[in-house]
Amino acid sequence: MPRRTPPVPAIFARRRAGVLLHVSSLPSMHGIGDLGPAAHAFADWCAAAGQSIWQMLPVGPVGPGDSPYASTSSFAGEPLFISLEVLAGEGLLPRADLRAGRGEPRVGADGPVDWAAARRFKEPRLLRAYQAARRGRGGLPAAFRAFTRRHSAWLPGWCRFAAMRPGASPDPDFHAWLQWQFDRQWTALREHCARQGVLLLGDVPIFVPLDSADVQDNPRLFRLDRNGRPDVVTGVPPDCFSATGQLWGHPHYRWSEHRRTGFAWWIARIRENLARFDAVRIDHFVGFVHAYEIPGRATTAMRGTWRPTPGRELLLALERACGRLPLVAEDLGAVTPEVVALRERFGLPGMKLVHNAFYGPGSGDLPCLHPVDCVAYPGTHDNDTTLGWWKTLPPDARARYASYVGAASVREARAGLPGSMVTATLQSPSRTAIVAMQDLLGLDGSARMNTPGLGSRQWRWRMAPDALLGLDAATMRNSAIATARA
Known about the structure:
By secondary structure, the chain is of the alpha/beta class. 35% of the residues lie in helices and 11% in strands. It has 17 helices and twelve strands.
């Protein structure tokens, strides 16, 4: 009998418009975006503006450089995303605790994220809320114990890891309670989004850092020497972002051990993410075909070797465990025919970046040439905003863009940015079109989220508290309707 193809996941079954905005970029009260009122208000705005997908970056505990792509757990949530306002509303914090005291960081809803200041402000309050919960009648509730039992495969290991961090509370129940609060607030947000018709698209980094609960709990799954150091580390060779390549430094997988266990760790990882999101993007999908291996002690990514990986076996195991996979393949970079074939074999939409369409004639990234089964973006979190992109665009590329959008001159094309870029993306044949919030707001390169290869002062952009007042939700909804996306 011919192989029966399962139905397309609902999130990809029709034309949709969406917004890329990380949780940390919300204008919440305490120096960093969180899962509280600002997140619920943003979901309301998405619904009013005809945006039925809200895409986020990875939501795990951030690692070195505050990067969500170097999360210290594949399963836990970032505790800084817990809303103190929600905890105060539940009686676990006095309202006075929502304001800074003498000598404390002055955190608010405005300005870029200062991760260290937000941590210094929020962590003591989270501990006080936990202590208040323990002192309550009956102590920690049965729902908390049920949560710990339900997540017993990863939660104890995460709690051990978190308790060992410098300055952290040594009480493992506190770290488990934080994960319970994250889960409760996340569930409330997701249910609110569902009521508004807004679906959530998450992100899963393909690799994990050496300093993580994953490696601490499962060292056999990674290529480590007898001293626990990586034999080879991850990255990509020199490219347009960096002349020396990108040295991510995460340990490579010991694929033989993953095969032996039936890819159980990967199955658990994807299931956990699909419990939070309606679909997830797999970062660096090319790593499911081949991965760039760099010697463990290298200081740059200039010298490395591409080695094959068992992505087909892994995806088959995931498909058997989870059914039709609601995954987006980030198939950018060193894409080969094998990468395309693997993505198509499992019916995964790839990605197209409109920013890339104008560097040469006849590019497959031109919106008019996009396949139906892809996700179209102007650019990703790793790209500059559209205004920043234009600033560095060569003259011939500017002329091609002007011609494509029907501008009478390059000057007219510049005057129409980034609106014409958003329109071109929405007009793509692709079923899914997602635009970064910075482009919807018309911001320049100072609002860029990340520049690959730079390890400091990244992941800091935050939307201004009054930013949405400058966007007409009805006009945006009409644009989504005009392009059959609402």
